[in-house]
Amino acid sequence: MLLTSAGRENVEGFFEECNIKDDIQMISTRNLEYRISNLAEKEVRLFWTVNSLKSYDSSNRVPRGLRQFKEASQFHSDPEFQAEWLNIQLDSATKMMRLILKRNEKEYSDVTTELSKCKTELSKRLTEGQSQQFLQKLDKKLIPIQAEIKERKKDKFLRDKMDYDNDRIFNWQQVKETKRRAPRKPQKSKPRNRDYWTSDTGSNDEQTNKEEDNTSTQKENPKNAKAPPEDASGGTETAKQKRPKRQVTWMKK
After folding, report:
1. Is 208 within a domain?
2. How many CA atoms lie within 13 A of 85 on its CB side?
3. Is 253 a residue whose pLDDT tops 50?
4. Does residue 199 belong to any structural domain of this protein?
């Protein structure tokens, strides 16, 4: 038990102050810097996504990912029906794009608001010089990320513009598959080696004839016959079985 009551005054006010603090004020300065870095990168990506979709909407175009055509094959011979069927799918794709745009705009607003709060809290904990040094380091990290995002958004926008200019609004996927399935150059088949069986059989026949000659010589002159080699146990090895002659099947040209 403490002998002094120092530090125990205004207990109710101490806990009320804890209730007032939000999650940003409760985290450490290091974690706060991490959160600012992640929010800043997310803000850059959402900024270009929102503005890219706005450009599509103002140009009356839809990105490729939302242009998935459902064909009505049973009414293929009716051009009036096909035209109306195409317009319905275009309207549906446009509505889906605007819904995605609305969702991204809301998320972008939430991210910018939270990012502003985090920067304000960080400025209270650091000196002006430390805060400027951290923000400069963060900008140096975000510059290449933003350049990559801009280039990718530009390429996709020009690609979709070419789809509309070349009347490939829904059949862009068929053109892509055709490029993938380009015919390959025919490969020349290797010529068959017709001398293979002749040479192989000839060598086998010669070996068989030599074995037969040696056997007949041993029968006629048993004195000159060589004794079979002995194995490790002191016995002799058994004679090898003769190889059967291979029948040659000649190929007619």
Report:
1. no
2. 16
3. no
4. no
54 has a pLDDT exceeding 80: yes
| H-type alpha helices, 126-230 | 128-165, 172-180, 195-220
Which residue type does 175 have?
V
Residue 199 token pair? 């040479």
Give 123-173 pLDDT, tens digit per residue. 988 888 999 999 999 999 999 999 999 999 999 999 999 999 988 888 877
Q: Which of 97, 34, 108, 41 is nearest to 66 (CA)?
A: 97
As a whole number of angstroms, the distance between CA 75 and CA 88 comes to: 15
Q: What is the mean pLDDT of residues 186-192?
A: 59
DSSP string computed for 204-244 = HHHHHHHHHHHHHHHHH-TTTPPPPPB-TTS-BPPPPPPPP
Inside any domain, residue 132: yes
Q: Please provide the average confidence, as pLDDT, over all residues in the chain.
A: 76
Q: How far is residue 33 from each of residues 55, 73, 133, 140, measured CA to CA in Å? A: 33, 57, 12, 15
Which residue shows structure tokens 């070419």?
162
Cβ-Cβ contacts under 8 Å for 146 (sequence gap 6 or more): 44, 48
In the chain, the amino acid numbered 89 is Q
CA distance 52 to 160: 12
Q: What is the mean pLDDT of residues 244-251?
A: 56
Is there a domain that residue 242 lies in? no
For the chain, helix, strand, coil in percent to 5 are: 65, 0, 30
Q: Which domain holds residue 139?
A: 19-180
